[in-house]
Design a protein that fits this description.
- The chain has a four-stranded antiparallel β-sheet with strand order 2-1-4-3.
- The chain is an alpha+beta fold and 163 residues long.
- The protein starts with a helix and ends with a helix.
Length: 163
Amino acid sequence: MNEQEIGKIVEAVLNKTINEDGYKQCMSLQLANALIQKVMEKAKAMGVKAVVAVSDGAGRPVSVQSMDDAYIASFDIALNKTYTSASLKMSTAKLGELSQPGESLYGIQYTNEGKIVIFGGGEPLTVNDKVIGALGVSGGSAAEDTALAAYGKAVFEEVRTCL
């Protein structure tokens, strides 16, 4: 394979990550870190010491950042929230409702070696109704984590279009 062929392959990959409006439609490290910074600023303002994680559309970690003095357990929990939200294409808060006894997804939390999280703080990140990643927040109360993840989802489009 020569240099021109490699260049064409790289260009094709890059072109697939940009939509018709010129905005990124995949989860890059730059986008993940920019979103995490926004969420961490909000967490600091709320007095929450959080771990914030972003995964790609397949639930694989792209970036995880921890605020000083955050709970050690929050690292795995935030990652599992991204996995859950990406793989099931819904917020962990919504999944929490659907996994109650008698509901359609009851028992799901016992699958996937404990990676499925059924409490708030995880949100799928979508572009044109396609999941390109997920956000997971852990470190506060269930209500705080849920609010921070919802905030992250709300500012995701703003962050994405600014890069």
